[in-house]
Amino acid sequence: MDLLEHQARELFADHGIEVPRAEITDSPKEARGIARRLGGRVVVKAQVKTGGRGKAGGVELAADPAAAELTARRILGMDIKGHRVDTVMLAEPVDIESEFYVSYVLDRADGRFLAIASAEGGTEIEEVAAARPEAVARIPVDPAEGVTTVVAARIADAAGLPPQTVDTLVRLWQVLTREDALLVEVNPLVRTRQGRILALDGKVTLDDNARFRQARWGDQEPPRGDPLEAAAAARGLNYVKLDGEVGVIGNGAGLVMSTLDVVAGCGARPANFLDIGGGASAQVMADGLSVVLSDPAVKSVFVNVFGGITACDAVADGIVRALETVHLTKPLVVRLDGNNAVRGRAVLDARAHPLVQQATTMDGAARRAADLAHAG
Amino acid sequence: MAVYLTQKSKVLVQGMTGAEGMKHTRRMLAAGTDVVGGVNPRKAGRTGDFGDRRVPVFGTVRDAVEATGADVTVVFVPPAFARAAVTEAADAGIGLAVVITEGIPVHDTVAFCAYAAERGTRIIGPNCPGLITPGQANAGIIPADITKPGRIGLVSKSGTLTYQLMHELRDIGFSTCVGIGGDPVVGTTHIDCLAAFQKDPDTELIVLIGEIGGDAEERAAAYVREYVTKPVVGYIAGFTAPEGRTMGHAGAIVSGSSGTAQAKKEALEAAGVHVGGTPTETARLVLARLESGTRRHS
């Protein structure tokens, strides 16, 4: 789960990293009051989980409380790369002397976290890395050792950061490990003319797998903009809404991704990703079908199951029972293969629902579902 | 021969006494695996009963290793306990730990992979179906009855795509199939398996299945170009996945322009790997490569 800037800022502050004074609001009127409290001049920043806010007009300096209200009114409700701005953060302006970049990111290939640091902060690090790779230090962190003061000093030295940043580098590692984050990034980390080191903007991605031991974020479901995704999440389904017209239900993440591709290869567009997993009980099948069928864009549904551990006759039973509770309004193409496939197909044949068709191969079934979607 | 797992492997099951552990231990035994023990500190001294086969339960991995000579462990414990379980197995000198558990925090995986590597323990997984050497042994949850022993080696991030290919190519059969798992960090990579299959005299052709996220497939392609002389056939899932969304597997995510299926396919093809457009087409490419190989040799 990605955090918003103000949530990241809060985490940094909790771990002793200095941040500018700031408050958030969803109301322009309140923005005026906040600006007054912060001393009049403030930076108004859109709170959205995407980069490029500045270029999109989502970050602006307001000279006084009245201007802050006007600016907040303009930024609230803005659309930045498909993300609607529901909240703005107002922060005291900072007298910047120099800007740095620091982050800890997961290096998947190496199976370790990597410290990335540069004395050229403030812009996209990818741009710095592309233009002047020698300006970006990349240092793998030994997971058993972590970032101690000695390690942090090595990182700062390699990147040409001033020694005062060592403390921040150590504390940022504590944010990463204690909060179970997969990414922490501060850009820019600044030194003020008064010599203070401040985290001016930050990005944090938390590990969803660690929810069970992170009391603070454990209850917070990632917000889902799409109502179908919200409905699926409420039923515990692994569902992602897409833009097409062929609903897809399958077992196993890899097979479902593959199914989307095969549908696309037949000239149709998949309407969703839905993995019902290994066990695929009748209840899960019914829940999955009802979510997919409630998508008005769906014209046909492709159920693609390979029975590995799951027997196909059990899956077929699940579909038949699901048909008792779900009112089927769109054609369903079912492909059962693998363990007990013959018996599974017989179960569906016996049910003989007029809208349910069977196909023996994945490619053939995808073609059928695509044709039905185009006909519908 | 096969890779990593043979009929000689003595297999432990950590978390055997749970529902999943019991179910899959039964299946592993049925596939001919020499399951020599389970581990559960609260049930030491008891047995798990599987028809006529009684499998002893030990309190610690070390006790189990001393009593049975186990060299492989299959880990079914819940995510919160996985790190301790793997650490314990590495401390006991287990050579191969197959971690089936899904949902392990990445920091734990990073920690136990580093710990195991220092002690010479290979990790397969986490969040994986395990591996099978058909006709010899099965360590994990891969169905044993959908294929037979043969000359194809398979490495995959995905369980069900593995099963699909095993089934489509059941008439040829497999030396070993390794499900390396769909998490962002895994203990054994495509490259490790390519190297093992290249060395394995029983493997004639290698099937490599990948999916969106990370650059493991690109790295595997570079490895193939440099070191693999056996034919490799590939398949990549996730061409239609939108950017920034996790597709089922924790590691299956396209971030910006990195981790796309297209880039992986192109990298593999540039290394001489034939990449199928669908699983079925991939199976056909395998058959074609095997046939042309046979013709060349005759």
UniProtKB/TrEMBL annotation, chain A:
It is an enzyme of class 6 (ligase). It catalyses: succinate + ATP + CoA = succinyl-CoA + ADP + phosphate; GTP + succinate + CoA = succinyl-CoA + GDP + phosphate. Coiled coil: none annotated. Signal peptide: none annotated. Its EC number is 6.2.1.5. One of its GO terms (molecular function) is ATP binding. Pfam families: ATP-grasp_2, Ligase_CoA. Residues 9-215 form the ATP-grasp domain. Belongs to the succinate/malate CoA ligase beta subunit family. This is Succinate--CoA ligase [ADP-forming] subunit beta. It comes from Streptomyces minutiscleroticus.
Automatic annotation (TrEMBL), chain B:
It comes from Streptomyces minutiscleroticus. The active site is at 249 (tele-phosphohistidine intermediate). Residues 5-104 form the CoA-binding domain. This is Succinate--CoA ligase [ADP-forming] subunit alpha. Keywords: Ligase, Nucleotide-binding, Tricarboxylic acid cycle. CoA binds at residues 17-20, 43, 100-102. InterPro entries: Cit_synth/succinyl-CoA_lig_AS (IPR017440), Citrt_syn/SCS-alpha_CS (IPR033847), CoA-bd (IPR003781), CoA_lig_alpha (IPR005810), NAD(P)-bd_dom_sf (IPR036291), SUCC_ACL_C (IPR005811), Succinyl-CoA_synth-like (IPR016102). Pathway: Carbohydrate metabolism; tricarboxylic acid cycle; succinate from succinyl-CoA (ligase route): step 1/1. Succinyl-CoA synthetase functions in the citric acid cycle (TCA), coupling the hydrolysis of succinyl-CoA to the synthesis of either ATP or GTP and thus represents the only step of substrate-level phosphorylation in the TCA. The alpha subunit of the enzyme binds the substrates coenzyme A and phosphate, while succinate binding and nucleotide specificity is provided by the beta subunit. The keyword Nuclease does not apply. The lineage of its organism: Bacteria, Bacillati, Actinomycetota, Actinomycetes, Kitasatosporales.
